[in-house]
Write a structure and sequence with these properties.
The protein is built from 24 helices and no strands. With 423 residues, the protein is mainly α. The N and C termini lie far apart (45 Å). The mean pLDDT is 87.
Length: 423
């Protein structure tokens, strides 16, 4: 066995020991694993590499932080609750459509922020009581919120795993919208009906409708309340279509629309809202900093190159099996880290396929990492918002959906050229 192999085992082992045995935060465990790899690998000037690694995902960190500020402001202004109430009022008589649309509502924060945690902590927290009142158990609600969160994380316009994979092979994040829609929204519809429709159709939903608060919606009006969300999508489109004029960048777009939420809905303490949003998303930001250090040391010691070479030498018959197993399992460290460390080499091995569809599919498989313990961010936070002390019961409910998502993504890769021809 080569030195790089043993260094990889050492780094993963130290990380696992920190998370499982010592119960350290994931970010701290990654820092210690990075230090261990740097020292064992004889990296020159390891402090410089660790500092550089912390800035590896600074753009992503700024995007997630400001996007979370927007979603918290959107929630505090009453707009998110009003949106949920409007959906339930409009589609109360059609339980199947109602469940699908509520699932889409949960996806929205992830679509904007690229973070499953944002979906769970904002829209998931608002919709969870609605699910309970419509007859869903806490475990079923937690599972559906978790699934909607990771699908929102992958759905356009913001898909950070796809950006990381594309950045590794110098492929711009352009043309991903339609493939990502086909990868996420059909699954969201299937799981919404699977977990919710069976229960909701037998419940008297008039009581749910009577319990909703429409005061904010009646006072401010739908267009005014939802205008910050509409403006975000408009500015995102203009940012890509005419960057020379509207090239504001994602963080600035989110900051501007966050301030707009304070004007369009209920008044709230903007500073306190921003502070709370950063506190909620801080574990995710810490993981990204840790992932940056981890990958920087893997690159400096040759471990990353070792993984790339071995991924490219895998027999074609085993390639898809390795993708289906290794990317989600590595996602236990971080879905973003899995995209960068394993997504890029597997993407290089799939250059014969349609690159955009293949990268989009790999990003969906990488997102499954948010179901994998010990991090399991989507499942852990979903369990909290539905009132469960332990998230293990939610994970059990997610086993079959996880397999379905992986198989669906693999089929997209295998038939990527045929799908591209149809598109």
């Amino acid at each position: 066995m080569s030195q790089e192999f043993w260094l990889f085992i050492l780094m993963v082992g130290v990380f696992a020991a920190g998370c499982f045995a010592l119960k350290w935060p994931v970010s701290v465990s990654m820092l210690v694993a990075s230090v261990a790899g740097a020292l064992a690998g004889g990296v020159q000037d390891p402090v410089r590499h660790l500092v550089e690694g912390t800035f590896g995902y600074v753009d992503t960190i700024l995007t997630i932080a400001t996007a979370m500020m927007f979603m918290t402001g959107f929630k505090d202004s009453g707009a998110l609750e009003a949106l949920t109430a409007a959906v339930i009022k409009k589609f109360n008589k059609w339980p199947g459509i109602l469940m699908i649309l509520l699932t889409f509502v949960i996806m929205v924060p992830g679509m904007i922020t690229g973070s499953s945690t944002a979906s769970v902590l904002t829209a998931g927290a608002v919709v969870a009581p609605m699910f309970a009142s419509m007859g869903m158990t806490a475990v079923e609600s937690g599972a559906l919120i978790s699934i909607a969160a990771i699908l929102g994380m992958i759905a356009p316009p913001v898909n950070i795993p796809a950006m990381l994979i594309g950045g590794g092979i110098d492929m711009p994040y352009v043309g991903f919208e339609l493939p990502l829609i086909l990868l996420t929204f059909p699954l969201a519809i299937v799981f919404a009906l699977w977990f919710g429709w069976r229960k909701v159709r037998h419940v008297d939903r008039s009581k749910v409708l009577a319990s909703l608060d429409f005061s904010t919606l009646n006072q401010y009006g739908g267009w005014r309340l939802f205008s910050p969300l509409i403006l975000i999508f408009v500015l995102m489109i203009l940012d890509k279509a005419v960057p020379s004029i509207f090239g504001l960048g994602m963080p600035l777009i989110f900051m501007l629309c966050t301030m707009l939420t304070w004007i369009t809905g209920k008044r709230f303490n903007l500073l306190q809202s921003a502070k709370k949003s950063i506190e909620d998303v801080l574990p995710v930001l810490g993981i990204l900093v840790g992932v940056g250090m981890f990958i920087q040391i893997m690159t400096a010691t040759g471990v990353r190159g070792f993984i790339v070479v071995n991924a490219l030498s895998v027999p074609p018959a085993l390639l898809y099996v390795m993708i289906a197993i290794s990317i989600p399992l590595f996602g236990a460290i971080s879905a973003f880290g899995s995209s960068s460390v394993l997504g890029v080499p597997f993407m290089l091995a799939l250059l014969s396929q349609d690159q955009i569809i293949a990268a989009a599919s790999l990003s969906l498989i990488a997102a499954i990492g948010d179901f994998m313990p010990p991090t399991a961010l989507a499942a852990i936070f979903a369990a909290k918002v539905v009132g469960l002390e332990k998230y293990g019961t939610v994970l059990k409910k997610l086993v079959v959906p996880t397999l379905i998502i992986i198989v669906y993504a693999i089929l997209f890769i295998v038939f990527s050229k045929q799908i591209r021809a149809v598109l």
